[in-house]
Amino acid sequence: MSAEKLTSHVSLIWSIAELLRGDYKEHEYGDVVLPFTVLTRLDSVLVDTKQAVLDIKATALPSQVKELQYAKATGYPFWNTSNFTLKTLLNDPDNLEQNLSYYVQSFAPAAREVMESYNFYNVIERLDKAGLLYQVLAEFTSAKVNLHPDVVSNSQMGYIFEELIRRFSELSNETAGEHFTPREVITLMVNILFNPDADIDRICAPGAMVSLYDPGVGTGGMLSTAAQHVAGLNSTARLEVFGQELNPQTYAVAKSDIMIKGERQERIYQGNSLTNDQTAGKRFDYMLCNPPFGVNWKKYADPILDEAKRKGWQGRFGAGTPRVSDGSFLFLQHMISKMRPYDPKDPVNAPGTRIAIVFNGSPLFTGGAGGGESEIRRWILENDWLEAIIALPDQMFYNTGILTYVWVLSNRKERKRQNRVQLIDATSYFQRMRKPLGEKRKELTPEHINDVTKLYGAFAETEHSKIFDTADFGYHEITVESPLRLSFQASAEALDRLQQARVFTDLAVSKKKTEPARSEQIQAGERLQRAIIETLAGLNPERVYLNRDEFTDLLSEGVKARGEKISVAALRKIVAELGTKNPEGDICRDAKGNIEADPDLRDTEQIPLREDIDAYFQREVIPYAPDAWIDRAKTKVGYEIPFTRYFYKYEELGDPVKTLAEIQALSASIQADIAKLFSEQVD
Fold it and tell me: Which of 152, 174, 194 is the last residue of a domain?
C-alpha cells in the first residue's frame, strides 16, 4: 500500500470522529475511535477463520485444548468465540449494545483485556445513550474502512494506528505531553541510541535479535519508532519490545499497537514500574524512556524508600533517592538496574546496554553535595555510564515550554568515549510550527535530526559540542570555619537586655511538683538573679572585655562572693547572652582548649576534584580570612553538570553614551507625543 493510500485510510477513520461532535468534547474523540479501530482490525483479522473457531467451540474438547486449536486456526494468539462479526451485529440494532458487549467478552483473555482497558463497555453504553452506537459501528464496518490483512498488512496497520494516536494526542494537547513524546524527539533519541551499532554485527548481522524496554511506555511511540529504525537498518533483525505503563488507557493504546502488528502483546504490562516492576530480573539491550517531568512521588514513596533501605546496592536505589518533588532519577536508576553486563571478550553473552532518556533541567544540578541527586550523578559518572547529554530547544513538548535534555548512557562505551562526556547544545536546531499545539511551538526537521546525530557521532569539540572528562563535573565541598570572637560590656542596656532574656528568667522557674519545693527553688533562683545583676552592676559599665574567660571568671567570682552558686551550664548561657560579636575580641576556646567556630562566619567552598584542597584554600581563602580553617569532617564530594555555563556566550554591552542619547531622544519623542495629544483635546 502506498503512503498516499495509508494516509487516506487514516483520514477516513479520523473523519468518523465528526459523528461525535456535540456529544463529546474534542479531547474525548480518541477514547472512541482508537478502541473501535482496534476492534475493527481484530474482527478483520479473524473473519476468515470464524467458522473454524466455531467448529472447534462445538466440540467436547477440554478448554485448554480448544485454546490451542483456536490459536492454530486463527494464526494469532487471540480469537473470538461468539457467533457474531462486527457486520452481523448491525442486523439487530435493537440489541446492539448488549450483543456488542457480549462480542467483546468472547475474545481471548489478552485481547479482551486490551478492550477492557479502554473502558470499552462504558464507551458502548455512552454511545448507545447518545444514539450514536449504530452509526459509529456502521462507519467502521463500511467498505471504505477496510482493515482486512489482505488490504492492510501488520506494519501498515501499525502506521495507521500510530498516526491516529499522534493526531488524537495533539488534539488533546493539554494532556498529550504526559503520555505522548513528539515523534521527531523520539526519532532523534532512536538515531543516537543505535548510532554506534549501525555498522556492526550487533544489529546488522543476519537474523540479529535484540531487546528494547520502556518503563514509562505511554502510547508506545518510542517502541514503534525504534522498531521501524531497526527494520530500516536490517530487515532480518528482530527487535523484541517490552514496556510498562501506569495509566490504563494509554496502556491499552500501547498494547493495541503491538497486538495489531502481530507482536506478542503480553510483553506490555500495566502498573507502576517503580513499585510493581513486572519485568523484574530481566535485562535489555536497549532502553528508552520519557518519564513524567517534575512529578511528585510522595504517594508511592514507602515501597521505594523501603527497597532503598532494605536492599541497598542489591536493589535499584542503592545510590540514593531524589527529592520527592521529582522522580525522574528513579526511572533512570530503574533502567540502569536492567543493564545487561558487558564483557568485551564475550560480547555475545555479555553485550552491554545503551539507554536514552528525556529529562528536564533538574537532574543536571539539583541537590547539593551528599544529597540524593548529587549522589546519583556521582554513581553514574564514577561508573562511567554517562555518554552524552543533548539540550533540546524549549517549547518542544505539548504540555511544557521548558528546556529538555536527552541523556545517553551506556556500559559499553566506545574507547574514544571512555571516561568522557559529550555535551551537545541543540537549542538552536528547530523550526517554528505554523500552528502551535498547546505549549509546543517548535519542531525538529529531518535535517536538524541528521545534524545533531552527526554532532554526536563526530565526537569533536565545536561551537555546539563540548567534551569533558567525567571528573570535571565533580567537586569537593569544604566547610570553612572562622573563630568565634566576642566582647562583653556590663552597660545598662546589656543588663536590661539580660533581664528580658529567657536564659535569665528561667533561673527563677521551678519544675518541682510539690508547693514547698517549688517555692524554695523559685526563691533560690531569684537570689541567683540578684547576685548576677549585682555583680554585673558592680563592673565598670564603660569597659569592654575582649576575653570571654576573663569576663566569665569575674561573673562567677562575683556570684560566689554573694553567697550563691551557679552551674557551669547556666553560667555559659548567661555569658553567651551578654556576648557581642567583635572582630577585635580574643578567640574563644572550649574547655579542652579547642578553638570555637563562629556559626555566622561559616561558609562552604566548592573545589574541583582535580584541584588540591589545601592549595586552593591557601590561595582563595587565607588571604581574606587568615585565621580560617577547614572542618575536614564535613568535607563532601558532589557532582553537578552546569550545562548552560559551558555554552554561555558573553555579549558586549552597547556604548553607554550612545545608549543614553537614544533614551533621551525616545523620552523627548514621548513627551512631544503627549503634549500633542493634550493640545488636540484642548482644541
Answer: 152
The percentage of residues in the chain with a pLDDT greater than 90, rounded to a whole number, is 67
When divided into structural domains, the chain yields a total of 4
Question: What angle (nearest 5°) sits at the alpha carbon of residue 485, between those of residues 480 and 491?
Answer: 150
pLDDT > 70: what percent of the chain? Answer: 95
Strand 465-469 to 420-425 pairing: antiparallel
**233-248 mean pLDDT:** 89
Asked if 512 and 659 sit in the same domain, the reply is no
Within this chain, do residues 44 and 148 fall inside the same structural domain, yes or no? yes
pLDDT of residue 98 exceeding 60, the answer is yes
Distance (Å, whole) CA 222 – CA 289: 8
What secondary structure letter does DSSP report for 506?
Answer: G
Query: CB neighbours of 201 closer than 8 A, spacing ≥ 6?
Result: 208
Over 80: is that where the pLDDT of 475 sits?
yes
Helix H segments across 261-371?
Answer: 301-311, 328-336, 362-365
Spatial separation of the C-alpha atoms in residues 425 and 462, rounded to whole Å? 10
- What value does the mean pLDDT take over residues 339-353? 91
614: phi > 0 → left, psi -120 to 50 → alpha, else beta; which? Answer: alpha
How far apart are the C-alpha atoms of 290 and 392, rounded to whole Å? 14
Considering only CA atoms, which of 596, 603, 555 is closest in space to residue 575? 555
pLDDT digits (tens, 9 = 90+) for 398-427: 777 889 999 999 999 999 999 999 999 999
Cα–Cα distance, 126 to 117 (Å, whole number): 16
Report d(CA 666, CA 16) in Å as an integer: 58
pLDDT number for residue 248: 84
DSSP 8-state code for residue 601 = G
The amino acid at residue 271 is: G
